[in-house]
Request: fold
Amino acid sequence: MIAVTEEKKSYRYIPPRPALWLPISIPAFLGAVIGWMTAEGDRALFLPFILGGAAIFALAALVSALYLERVRKWSGWIIGAVFLVAGTLSFGLAYGIVLAIVGYIIGRMAIWIATGDYRLNMPPYATSAEVAWFYGFRVICGLILFFLIMPIVIIIPLSFNATPYFSFTPEMVSLNPAGYSLRWYWDILQNGMANPNSTGWAFFKDMWQNAQWIRAIKNSFWIGTWATLLATALGTLAAIGLSRDEMPWRRSLTALLISPMIVPLVITASGLYFFFSDLGLAKTYTGVILAHAVLGTPFVIITVTATLVGFDQSLTRAAANMGAGPVTTFFKVQMPLILPGVISGALFAFITSFDEVVVVLQLADVKQRTIPRQMFSGIREQISPTILAVATILVIISIGLLTMVELLRRRSERLRGLSPG
Reply:
């Protein structure tokens, strides 16, 4: 069926309204699963399936009947509010909030299926199997993403645990403020201080000089910064050389330069240890920086090489024809265009250095202990939720750096004309 609106003269496909059993069956199944998850004791046998399925069956039927455009957008909020009240009265505020989110999704999904809107993104001739695969593929991708992200996300609320345990306490589950604390973030600043009770300037001076985690953070940024600068310089020059057609043995050299990404890290670390030991660089900042530069250079080579794929080499020939030398051509012509790729490679090199622990275990001394090395020692020697607080900070830093990489990638595509400005 094709609907024509006189105001905008636009055409919109309106699919036929399906039977009510489809929008009811899926939410009913979800309701049964929710009821089973929230059940306790002997009730976990059949009662949750019956009650949960029946409750959401009725709600989905009600929402499916609300086919009018003016009430359709409120379906998710209505079921979400019902779930919030029922969950709060039955299990507590925390469960109520979770159930409210689930209820909102169920309400939107029920009306989305009942009105046939799920076919709006599909061509009119799409078969039922094609529609099922279209959304089934996205569900599979969502489950994979959930599987990958949840172990990382779960540490964030645990880092605010008021008790020294790696589990959710009843106070945390019920959203009781007494169950949450910043003590483990405060422990990052105080751990290892000569006088944790000092105040003012004496506290900051003692923290900067003696706190174990602060020392590890300083080492991580110091080593990571210098390793990134070295890896970026070497990787950019290597990528520019490998991108030239007259470069002999390009494939072999590329495979050799990116081999630190392929060879097991423990083998690379052992080889670097024996090599640097003969040079007197083991257990020094210079040795750790050089080792991290070796590990970060392949990332720079790959990102810069990918940027140079769309680079117009006639620009360098034109610059040479105008009298510009190789150095001037590089900084005035090539560098502005490949700068997003260079920065992206530098960020990847920094993340590699910032998160690396195997090389540090073999090459670093107590003075060069980085954050991953300090976390490794904390896990082996004394289990403390301070590790969760540090891990949360690292996750936030990684998210910020990856966001910057994505913004730079989009800017590079705009500069190269691959996407609209």
